[in-house]
Write a structure and sequence with these properties.
The complex is a heterodimer of chains A (351) and B (254). Chain A has 351 residues and is mainly α. Chain A is built from 14 helices and 3 strands. The model of chain A has no long low-confidence stretch (mean pLDDT 87). The chains are: A mainly alpha (351), B alpha/beta (254). The complex binds adenosine-5'-triphosphate and magnesium ion. The site of adenosine-5'-triphosphate has 12 residues of chain B, from strand 2 and helix 1.
């Protein structure tokens, strides 16, 4: 009993326990509510996007909070994941009729392709010290958006057709996957809230496993003191690249989930503003604070949508909430209070 | 005498017009505790930065167990067997005391990222060994009770000890200590001297240390090198150095 309580509420694992319980609890409550009463569409339509943004914010926190590097292009990785997933899902629609399986394939593909792009841009950049990553990711986000904006991809019985800048794809009774600025049209909506929650749990699992391993320690060591880390044999660029690639892959996963929740999706959705929005979620949740990230993303994403009916007061309330969230997640008093509560649980277990 | 662990030949470095270290020849033998002393600005820390390749030498060679390490990276120098502490403490401030030490064991306990994510047996066994070894080191340096707090919130003397523990975690052949007793009270310094001797014997390593506290240097060093204006002024046993005219003059100023 003592062992179990320690694994759950020991100082190191407390945050992990809270994260998993929080997500599962919220899921159960929402599922019960949805079955018991008719929830407004405004509410249900937000569920999957919130899951996506939680995943991408957690991913970005790995880079910004744990690895101490700045990325201004995480929307770009979402875009890669999103449109890879749309293409894979569209192409495999007849081969894999099962929606769940197809969703799985598309999400994995989005993850891998996005991770590869992450590797491609971070390997050269992270060899340098300094804030080059911020500049390069900023450019990367813009380039990806423009590229997808100019891509036309369709398929019919003769195979895949592709053109760039102008639409020269003519199909015989086929289907367009990407139509330039219009993006993906007529995608099968195969994501749902449950998958979103599962992917959040997977993301949490990956991030916590990484942090509580030798890799997590070197990631944080390289952040806290570069010279000291090198003096004990930590390869800084490899360590930072690892964090970045995993983050990019998870952002791709979020993008894939997002794309398959809508029948149409434009590349402009993943612009610079989106990258900054994700960064705001992370900063307000607290750098390196996983539970803070989950809470701030949920509040800051849902609130502006919920407040639409209040019109003029909307941004005022939003601003107040920003301040309150920042106070809550970054205040040592609140953290100590939370620690005390989990300590109580632990003591009970030890008795 | 036994083989030199470290052999420095004609080592030198220029910063623009300033020659910070010049023509330095120095050896450290197996199991020795050697002192490197000299007035402020003599170039002692610069020597450490050369040995650990924080700086690239302008001249000369550095042999560790006979192998030239002067062209290696800092990371590879550590893998080859040199670990160090810093004059201005450089801990990983936002991670726990025990994690600071565990990070030092990074290269001696291999498991993959996949092992880490899937919590394989290999990962769990490695982590268990890492934890045991880290706890052992913390006990030696009297830090065990503070193992879960952030390194930044340790008192000054404890931070210095933690740096040594972290360096030892990399299993070096040669340990470089840059003013390990700076900021410590006499009692702490006494304890530190005993600990330094203890780890030398326990881990069978050589130690090269920079220190301004002469009682410490004269007490635990078997041989001493004196640096002045970047060049070697004298070398010898503590007694020889204590009575060396040139050394006394350099310290008192002319
Ligand atoms: N990176 C650098 N660039 C330029 N000059 C440097 C650099 N590092 C050291 N120096 C110079 O080299 C000389 C030796 O400095 P060093 O820090 O090695 O002295 P020290 O013997 O460790 O002194 P202290 O006892 O005060 O620590 C000083 O004049 C210093 O200003
Ligand atoms: Mg110095």
């Amino acid at each position: 009993m003592k062992g179990i309580m320690n694994t759950l509420f020991g100082k190191k694992n407390r945050s992990r326990t809270i994260s998993f319980s929080l997500v599962i609890l919220v899921y159960i409550v929402i599922e019960i509510l949805m079955h018991a009463i008719r929830m407004p569409r405004l509410f249900t339509s937000l569920l999957v996007p919130v899951c996506c943004y939680i995943i991408v914010a957690l991913a970005l926190n790995l880079v910004v909070g744990f690895s101490g590097e700045l990325s201004l292009g995480h929307a770009g990785f979402m875009a890669i994941g999103a449109f890879t997933a749309v293409a894979v899902s569209g192409l495999s629609a007849s081969a894999v009729p099962n929606g769940m399986l197809r969703l799985f394939l598309s999400v994995v593909a989005g993850c891998i392709v996005s991770g590869l792009f992450g590797l491609l841009i971070s390997v050269p950049v992270l060899k340098l010290s300094g804030d080059y990553l911020a500049i390069v990711t900023l450019a990367f986000g813009q380039i990806i958006k423009s590229l997808i904006n100019n891509m036309f991809l369709g398929f019919d019985k003769n195979g895949l057709h592709f053109s760039f800048v102008t639409n020269e794809v003519s199909l015989e009774n086929g289907k367009m996957l990407l139509s330039g600025p219009m993006g993906a049209t007529d995608t099968a909506k195969i994501s749902n809230f449950t998958t979103g929650i599962i992917l959040i749990l997977i993301t949490l699992f990956i991030i916590y496993s990484l942090i509580n391993s030798k890799y997590g320690r070197t990631i944080m060591a390289a952040r806290d003191n570069r010279i000291a880390a090198e003096s004990i044999g930590v390869d800084i660029s490899r360590t930072k690249t690892l964090a970045f690639v995993i983050s990019a892959a998870l952002a791709g996963m979020a993008g894939a989930l997002y794309a398959l929740n809508y029948s149409t999706l434009q590349p402009s959705k993943f612009d610079f503003n989106t990258s900054i929005l994700i960064l705001v979620y992370v900063v307000f949740g607290g750098l390196g604070n996983i539970n803070g990230t989950i809470i701030s993303t949920t509040l800051l994403y849902v609130l502006p949508e919920m407040l639409r009916s209040l019109q003029d007061y909307r941004m005022l309330i939003y601003a107040v909430v920003l301040i309150v969230v920042m106070q809550l997640t970054n205040s040592s008093r609140i953290r100590r209070f939370a620690d005390r509560i989990t300590d109580l649980f632990r003591k009970k277990g030890e008795e | 005498m036994a083989n030199p662990v470290l052999e420095v030949k004609n080592l030198g470095i220029d910063f623009g017009g300033l020659t910070a270290v010049n023509n330095l020849n120095m050896e450290v033998y197996e199991g020795e505790i050697v002192g490197l002393i000299g007035p402020n600005g003599a170039g002692k820390t610069t020597v450490f930065n050369l040995l650990t390749k924080v700086y690239d030498p302008s001249r000369g060679s550095i042999l560790l167990d006979g192998k030239d390490i002067a062209r290696m990276t800092t990371v590879d120098v550590n893998k080859a067997g040199i670990a160090r502490t810093f004059q201005n403490i450089r801990l990983f401030g936002k991670i726990s005391v025990i994690d600071n030490v565990k990070t030092g064991m990074n290269n001696h306990h291999a498991y993959s990222v996949a092992d880490a994510i899937f919590h394989t047996k290999k990962r769990n066994e490695s982590e268990k060994r890492i934890t045991e070894k880290a706890e052992e080191l913390l006990k030696i340096f009297n830090l065990y009770d503070s193992r879960d707090i952030e390194a930044d919130s340790l008192p000054y003397g404890a931070q210095r000890r933690l740096e040594i523990a972290r360096a030892l975690a990399t299993e070096p052949k040669l340990l470089l200590l840059d003013e390990p007793a700076a900021g410590m009270n006499p009692q702490e310094t006494d304890e530190l001297m005993n600990t330094i001797r203890f780890v030398r014997d326990k881990f069978a390593i050589s130690i090269l240390l920079i220190e301004h506290d002469m009682s410490l240097v004269m007490n635990i060093c078997e041989r001493i090198y004196v640096l002045n204006y970047g060049t070697l002024l004298a070398k010898g046993s503590p007694d020889e150095i204590k009575n060396n005219e040139k050394v006394i003059k350099a310290y008192l100023g002319d």
